[in-house]
Design a protein that fits this description.
The protein is α+β, with helices and mostly antiparallel strands. Helix content is 40%, strand content 23%. The strands form 3 sheets. The chain has a 5-stranded antiparallel sheet. It has a 4-stranded antiparallel sheet with strand order 9-10-8-11. A two-stranded antiparallel ribbon has the order 1-2. The protein is elongated.
């Protein structure tokens, strides 16, 4: 038969599963009388676990928010899910407060795992492989992230102390309407009220964020994720590229996703079937152009290069190299 301490921990686990539990239900699950349940509840309260009583016909006990995190009871599958989430978060770079908090949280759970669960976890981690390289990203401050989330939810202006990629520091005011996680980094997007234009900031470059008095209306239009991706596609780079590609949005997006290029429908000519494939205008900006010819080749769709001429020369050069390789017979030695 379980000892009283074990029953108290079982009571905590039952309450953590959510909802209001009646005294009769708890007594039945613990195998004790109602007055013993009340005594166990008193012990949890003495340990600063925020248990509150609910009066009425369907009353009982439930957990209330407290000033600190109470002891947390996890089932085997729940513990594995949390640990795998920590592994995936570290791998993708989507962590806050640096890697230390993630590692200590993981270590605390792994220390108390039952042996059979620990063996399952080790087996899984040994068998697990990732197709991408581990991300080494600067992590945002948890306080900044929470302050921005509060500003987004309540539509409050927020003041940011920000350092750009060249290290120049400035203080900005932002009407923030979304936080976006993308490719291992956190971003906040919103409107700069001084110039009336959208701005996106990396959270790991924000030293401090504090809400300001007042409120604002969220703009209509694309959601925050789409705004961030559109901002990437139109960021200032060395080359501005404009193409027309004949195909479907899905065909083009498979090779030129929203974070790279903007798509705008181009009016079809009289002999084109606009119901299926159609001409789309593609605009993007890039620091280099050498990666674009292979992408256009892999698209295998008709395209027109409007600008720049340098890209047209690179595509022609790639086509000539491919044709030269294709004409070579098996007996010919490849040229160095």
């Amino acid at each position: 038969m379980p000892r009283p301490t074990g029953r108290v921990l079982t009571l905590l686990e039952l309450l953590q599963s959510g909802g209001t539990r009646t005294v009769a239900e708890l007594a039945d699950r613990l195998g004790v009388e109602g007055r013993t349940v009340r005594r166990y509840v008193g012990q949890l309260i003495d340990l600063d676990v925020p248990v509150e009583s609910v009066r009425g016909r369907y009353g009982g006990y439930r957990l209330a928010p407290g000033y600190r995190l109470p002891p947390l009871m996890l089932g085997d599958d729940e513990a594995l899910a949390v640990l795998l989430g920590l592994v995936a978060g570290r791998r993708s770079g989507l962590m806050t407060a640096g890697h230390t908090a993630s590692e200590t949280a993981s270590a605390k759970i792994r220390r108390v795992l039952p042996k059979h669960v620990a063996r399952r976890l080790e087996t899984l981690l040994e068998s697990l492989a990732f197709t991408d390289e581990a991300g080494e990203f600067a992590t945002p401050d948890a306080g900044v992230l929470l302050a921005l989330a509060d500003a987004v939810r309540h539509r409050r202006p927020v003041s940011l102390r920000y350092a750009d990629r060249d290290g120049r520091r400035s203080e900005r005011t932002l009407h923030a309407y979304g936080i976006v996680a993308h490719s291992g980094r956190w971003y906040v997007t919103g409107t700069d009220p001084e110039i009336g234009e959208d701005r996106t900031f990396r959270l790991d470059r924000i030293a401090d964020a504090r809400t300001l008095p007042g409120s604002f209306e969220a703009p209509v239009g694309p959601d925050p994720a789409q705004r961030v991706l559109s901002g990437f596609a139109t960021a200032e780079y060395r080359h501005e590229v404009t193409l027309r590609i004949h195909g479907t949005v899905e065909q083009i997006r498979a090779h030129l996703p929203a974070g790279i290029a903007n798509l705008e429908e181009h009016a079809p000519t009289a002999d084109e079937d606009g119901a299926t494939e159609r001409w789309l205008r593609v605009e993007l900006r890039a620091e280099r152009l050498d990666w674009l010819p292979p992408v256009l080749a892999s698209l295998d769709r008709p395209f027109v290069i409007e600008r720049p001429d340098e890209l047209r020369d690179l595509v022609i050069a790639l086509a000539e190299r491919l044709a030269s390789h294709a004409r070579r017979s098996d007996c010919e030695e490849p040229m160095p």
